[in-house]
Amino acid sequence: MAELSSTSRTALIVTAVTASATAVFLPVPLVIAGAFIIVLVAVYVLMWPIILLMTLIWSIFGGGPEDPNKAAQDSIRAGQTDGSGSLSTAWVPTALVSTIEDAGDICSAVGPVVIAAQIQVASNWDNTKVGENGETGISQLSEDIFDEYGEDSNDNDKTSATDPKDAIMAQGEFLCDMAKETKKLVDDGEAIGDPLDLALAAYYHGGIDEVREHGGVPEDAGTTGYIYQVRSHFGQYLGVLGEPHESPTVTGWDPDEDEKKDDDDSDSDSGGTLDGESNNAANSSLRVPDPSADSPPDSSQKGEVLSLVNQERAKAGCDPVRSESRLATAAQRHSEDQADHQNMSHTGSDGSNVGQRLDRAGYPWSTYGENVAINRPSADAVMEAWMNSTGHRNNILNCDFTQLGVGMATNSSGTYWTQNFAAPK
Fold first, then answer.
1. Which domains, ranges and CATH numbers included, belong to the chain?
2. What is the distance between the alpha carbons of residues 386 and 162, in angstroms, rounded to a whole number?
3. What's the whole-number mean pLDDT along residues 132-136?
4. Phi/psi at 137 (nearest 5 deg)?
5. 28: how many CB neighbours lie within 10 A of its CB?
6. Above 90 in pLDDT, residue 181?
7. Is the overall model pTM greater than 0.70, yes or no?
8. Are strands 403-411 and 365-374 parallel, antiparallel or unpaired?
9. What is the mean pLDDT of the segment spanning 102-130?
10. Would 78 disulfide with which of 49, 234, 336, 415, CB 3.0-4.6 Å?
11. Helix, strand or coil for residue 311?
């Protein structure tokens, strides 16, 4: 055995220690790398629904939010709500904004965001789509359901499931009926669950039988998948996903063909009553030059509207309506709001509906109806337009209404008229 010098022994010891240290610490980077990969995989698994949702929306519309991460979180939170809130009109075909808002105001259980999300799931705004069971049109309603709920909602002298405006209003009426019926099941102890989920489940099955049989939302993949899909679009139609690069359109529908020959576009709008029955509210959107646009109309025109309303009601055998100050306040505020924002709508600039505006004015309503119009220069002219439109005429000749408030406001674009009919509690 050879003898080593002290220097050699020291070198050997150092080498041995160094080698040992290398043997001990060499696996550490591999462990760290492996752990990092595991974390990445876990994060991806948790985030893939969000990634999928964002990718789907951007691939369809080509738009997106400035902060995708925040928007994704906001979208998830929106899907967990009841969908209430103002409709982001950028994601809706322009010609259908008013109709969707009207359908979303039929009852308090359903808002326009839910209506738009349903259409997105049902047809992706494709009016030519035909379902597996013969469902047609943008809302994909069955023939039986449309026969029961469909009406000529835009006064173009035809009622059709392939007329998007007729279909959307029928969709809103049917969904509100399902919300009302499923609420009764809950009240009677026959079902439990989230109110909107129950209504959507009943809507999906074409009636409440399946919900009653299961005591809540049926757990089959079709039902739960439908509810999930509808909710997944709430964020989009609430505006948390930014705006699309291009405005969406309806495939297979030309809105100009569905207008009346005189271009009078009338839409039905509804609001909830205390007993759950529908209140008709309508608007007339004929836009013609208003010779009085440069100066506010005389306030006596409001009194003339009241007089003309009662003349028409007398012909129909209805009692006259009386002027009511709180209704007049609500009507005037809404006319001024429309004029300030140059936007004729039943939805206020703050997202309010008719009933909410009456509440703010302190009116204790049990039922109500609203008519609005723009660019009619006089009481005679606006009443003639309203009486020539089914939805507006129905409000004027509704014998259940006992009181009326009239509002009018003028800007450079013209005169905005509002009628608020109601009966107190």
1. 78-238 (1.10.530.10), 301-424 (3.40.33.10)
2. 26
3. 86
4. 80, 180
5. 9
6. yes
7. no
8. unpaired
9. 92
10. 234
11. helix
Residue in the block written with tokens 């109806």: 369
pLDDT at 334: 94
- pLDDT tens for residues 241-254? 777 777 789 999 98
Which ranges of 219-260 does DSSP label H, i.e. alpha helix? 221-232, 234-238
Residues 169-178 pLDDT 10s: 999 999 999 9
Q: Which candidate, 119, 146, 94, places its Cα nearest to that of 265?
A: 94
From CA 102, how far away is CA 259, in angstroms rounded? 17
The b-or-e profile of 277-291 (16+ CB within 10 A means b, else e) is: ebbbbbbbbbeeebe
Query: Which amino acid is located at 299 in the chain?
Result: S
Question: Beta strand 365-374 with 278-284: parallel, antiparallel or unpaired?
Answer: parallel
How many CA atoms, within 13 angstroms, populate the side-chain half-sphere of residue 69? 0
**Contacts with 300 (C-beta within 8 Å, 6 or more apart), sequence order:** none
CA 19 to chain centre: 70
**Torsion angle defined by CA atoms of residues 252, 253, 257 and 258, in that order, rounded to the nearest 10 degrees:** 140
Cα-trace Rg, the chain: 30
What's the CA gap between 416 and 23, in Å, rounded? Answer: 85
pLDDT tens, position by position, 196-245: 999 999 999 999 999 999 999 999 999 999 999 999 889 889 888 777 77
| Ramachandran angles phi, psi of 401, nearest 5° | -75, 140
DSSP 151-220: --TT-SS---TTSHHHHHHHHHHHHHHHHHHHHHHHHTTS--S-HHHHHHHHHHHTSSHHHHHHTSS--S
Provide the b/e sequence for 62-83 (b: ≥16 CB within 10 Å): ebbbeebeebbebbbebbeebb
The Cα–Cα gap between 90 and 402 comes to 39
